[in-house]
UniProtKB/TrEMBL annotation:
Belongs to the AhpD family. PANTHER family: ALKYL HYDROPEROXIDE REDUCTASE AHPD. Pfam families: CMD (PF02627). The gene is ahpD. This is Alkyl hydroperoxide reductase AhpD. It catalyses: N(6)-[(R)-dihydrolipoyl]-L-lysyl-[lipoyl-carrier protein] + a hydroperoxide = N(6)-[(R)-lipoyl]-L-lysyl-[lipoyl-carrier protein] + an alcohol + H2O. The active site is at residues 130, 133. It comes from the Bacteria. Residues 94-173 form the Carboxymuconolactone decarboxylase-like domain. NCBIfam families: ahpD, ahpD_dom. Disulfide bonds join 130-133. HAMAP family: AhpD (MF_01676). InterPro entries: AhpD (IPR004674), AhpD-like (IPR029032), AhpD_core (IPR004675), CMD-like (IPR003779).
Length: 178
């Protein structure tokens, strides 16, 4: 499935998502690796097989094998970290002072430019709603030379990809109930 086929699957009530998906696919403030990796990591984090297949078909070939693996790793590691750090942040108390005791080796050596990996981690953290992780990754990417516009573009991609996944999940649920 292509990105165009994914856009065509969106119902009329999701027309804005269709338009946003098309325009974000050519977002000019991100380089090709940043753009493609953000789409891939966001699709995986959105947990919709159809969206993931379409995004991987569209953007996977635009990434080196190392970058594709890093985008997948960002979605994987942040799937774990976002739950853990959201808990420590929301519950408070001594949990934030205790060692996490979770392996996060990929963050030290992601196989791509650290700023790109952190940008993808930020996008996934936005989808998963971990404020602590969003703040940490935003700080790293800004310190690494990215602009607020680039951060915003990555989060816009995450928001639209996640919304597309939600709409398609709902459409499939309604179709199977009929």
């Amino acid at each position: 499935m292509s990105l165009e086929a994914l856009r065509a699957r969106l119902p009329e009530h999701a027309k804005d998502l269709k338009l946003n998906l098309g325009s974000l696919a050519t977002e000019p403030v991100l380089n090709q690796q940043q753009l493609a990796g953000t789409f891939v990591a966001s699709a995986i984090a959105s947990r919709n097989a159809e969206v993931t297949r379409a995004i991987l078909a569209e953007f996977g070939p635009k990434l080196s094998p190392e970058a594709l693996a890093a985008a997948k790793a960002a979605a994987a590691i942040m799937g774990m970290n976002n739950v853990y750090y959201r808990f420590t942040h929301l519950v408070g108390g001594d949990y934030a002072n205790l060692p996490a005791k979770l392996r996060m080796n990929v963050m030290a050596k992601p196989g791509v430019d650290k700023v790109d990996f952190e940008l993808w981690s930020l996008a996934v953290s936005a989808i998963n709603g971990c404020g602590m992780c969003m703040e940490a990754h935003e700080k790293v990417v800004l310190h690494g030379g990215l602009s607020k516009e680039q951060v915003q573009a990555a989060v816009r991609i995450a928001a639209v990809v996640h919304a597309v996944a939600g709409v398609l999940d709902a459409e499939d649920a309604m179709a199977s109930a009929a």
